[in-house]
Specification:
Strand content: 15-25%
Shape: elongated
CATH superfamily of the largest domain: HUPs
Oligomer: single chain
Helix content: 40-55%
Order of helices and strands: EHEHEHEHHEEHEHEHEHHE
Number of domains: 2
Length: about 280
């Protein structure tokens, strides 16, 4: 039987060095891969919903799974406990793991290394543990990672066309964040429906995209996303200024002060979008 290899990473998911290490193990033969990420929270003090934490972890796993699919390497993924040590040991027990690959930032920037994660996992499991260091600053490829923030305009045709145009012009991957209108329950369901509608259209076009729901406050949702995801630039989609709470709160200007990444504003009048008729202002 193939040996089952556990891949553990957090912010370094999708990094070229990690993907290369998995490819090398795949080419050595006799291996299948389980890819996990812990549900870590952002470093800032912003409030964040548990579902947004899970979505971010799922997106990180998906980044590695997508890269492996491009190399025709089959793998499946899971989202685990927030503590990387507990997450790794849980996965070892749950999936019957034979080997482990742990990916971290360089030692000077890695919280996992400061907590001796690699050594602790090896001592606790007795399994072979390969440590892969991913320097994201040196590991960047030619793909632009664009953060897209939209709520009721997420289904608007102008936003979709802008994303499709960008993807056709140069390699892009999109992370879509849809802030909720309020707390849990039906607000979460509505936000997720808008998210999945846009992601579905992008996937039908073969455009790499992932994402999740975010905090009801769009500024907080952006601030959290900047910590969760790699972001080279941003697109913020709103209703026209006179009908948009986001514009009245100067969201674009506040986000431009929050990040050095370029911010593009896409304005959509959902009154001209039949699928959006009756939607509330956002």
């Amino acid at each position: 039987m193939a040996r089952r290899v556990l891949v553990v990473a957090n912010e370094t998911h999708g990094g070229r060095s990690l993907v290369d290490a998995i490819r090398a193990r795949h080419e050595a033969g006799d291996a299948e891969f389980v890819v996990i990420a812990p549900q870590n929270r952002p470093h800032s003090g912003y409030v964040i919903y548990d579902e947004a934490v899970r979505d971010a972890a799922r997106a990180r796993v998906d980044a590695t799974l997508h890269a492996l699919r491009e190399h025709e390497i089959a793998a499946y993924g899971d989202v685990m406990d927030p503590d990387p040590y507990s997450a790794t040991l849980d996965a070892v027990r749950e999936y019957g793991i034979d080997e482990i690959i742990i990916s971290t930032h360089p030692e000077t920037r890695s919280g996992w290394m400061r907590r001796d994660l690699v050594e602790r996992v090896h001592d606790a499991t007795g399994l072979p543990v390969q440590h892969v260091v991913v320097d994201l600053a040196a590991d960047r490829d030619e793909t632009t990672h664009t953060l897209v923030v939209a709520n009721h305009t997420a289904r608007g045709e102008p936003l979709f066309e802008e994303l499709r145009k960008r993807a056709a012009a140069s390699p892009h991957t999109f992370t879509v964040i849809v802030p909720q209108d309020g707390g849990e329950g039906h607000h979460t369901e509505k936000a997720r429906a808008r998210l999945e509608a846009l992601l579905g259209r992008l996937h039908e076009e073969g455009i790499p995209a992932t994402g999740g729901i975010g905090d009801p406050d769009p500024y907080t949702a952006v601030a959290n996303a900047l910590q969760f995801y790699r972001v080279d630039d941003l697109i913020i989609s709103t209703l026209p200024k006179m009908r948009s709470r986001w514009m009245r709160s100067d969201l674009i200007g506040r986000v431009q002060k929050l990040t050095a990444a370029p911010v593009q504003h896409v304005e959509i009048d959902i009154a001209t979008e039949p699928a959006q008729a009756g939607a509330k202002a956002a």
